[in-house]
Amino acid sequence: MHYGNHLEAIYCISGTGSIEDSQADEVHVVRPNIIYAFEKHDAHLLCAETELVLAYVFVPPWGGREVHDETGDLMSP
Known about the structure:
By secondary structure, the chain is an all-beta fold.
């Protein structure tokens, strides 16, 4: 998943897992107190090993009624 119109950051509150960066072919550990920031609309896959509690931040913020297509871009109304 990636969002073509938003930058994204993820903060892990609890749980464990990994984020696979599809373009860089890298896997990063997800654990409490870790933040991941995607600065280039990076395509990624989040995999949970345990139940994850995450906080997401999007820039610009989501409007709440947005619909994204399979590429992560906004769909036209």
